Amino acid sequence: MTTELCSPMGFMRTPSEGTAELSWQDGRWFAAGRPLGRPLRPDDVAPLRPLRALRVAWPREPAAYALATIRDLAGAGVPLTADPPPAWVRAADPVLADLIAGWVPEAGDGSPRSVADLRREEHSVRLRRHALRAKGLCRDTPQVAVVMASRRPHLVGRALAQIARQRGADLEVIVALHGYPADLVRQALDEFPGTLTVIEADRDTPFGAVLNQAAERSSAGLIAKWDDDDWYGPEHIADLLLAKAYSGADVVGTAAEFFHLEPLNCTIRRTDYSSEVWTDHVAGGTILIDRRLFQEVGGFAPLPGGVDSHLLRAAAAAGGRIYRTHGLGYMLSRSVSGDHTWRLPLAHFLRVATNQWHGFRPSLLLETP
Fold this sequence. Notes:
There is one protein chain. The protein is an alpha/beta fold. 30% of the residues lie in helices and 22% in strands. Pfam families: Glycos_transf_2. Keywords: Transferase.
């Protein structure tokens, strides 16, 4: 991790101030009248966090540091907006130009339930993805072992389809069928387009031990846990890799923010877990951990449940640093089935909900058909 890298750390989900102007004067950028560093530093970004947006007033002609600073602001996740840019900007970075010009900030209501603020955060994620990768982050990312243990054969096909659509990551996939033979899900396994390792585990084997069996069959330097019943956006793994690159963490994961409650056919969103922070907790179905640390702590506990929290506690006790990135590309699914290893009544999710919508309503970053 580069200490001077302007990253999304410290992003504010609910802005407390309005839109400020970003103007080019005397060869440098001024944000709300305050000069920005050349190059941009994290100390320059911190005062911008409460803003709803920065409106970019592009210089008419190319200028040293002009585009580089905008890229740094985008990489930090600062929500940028602008009128259509001059030709030199579009020629230099057409994707960034379209992202900035394509978003118009909407007024929020000052509370975490604001959908306008959700759209603002989605825009921030798109900006940071593009800008940080353009700077070379994740260019040499190691392979990721995706490990999934499933006791529900009817969900294997859906889970594998979501793994198959992951972008920007080199994956090896290991699926442990917990209590049933591979022939029961043969079609789903055969339809997976990538390399797939399948193991069959006895149903009496504890869930954590089954996950360890899957991890042992992999060789990648990073291990990602995947839950068969949850929903993942196509850049889920890539976003975790990006967060690991700019944070330098040993473990990364997302906030558990969106939930689909199947029996009620409703989606709830909780915002009591902040994102882009150091933490001791991430959603279990999103854990990405260095293999070295995973092996040092003995992997998942050989228990029937609670294995995610046990792994996180063990990693922290061993000195591992845990970072939580945004949860917009992930949705947990909950039913009344007894198959969940994390068992809470549906009423609990309704009590903690910031937003509630009828039907399946994930963030736009999930990119559902």
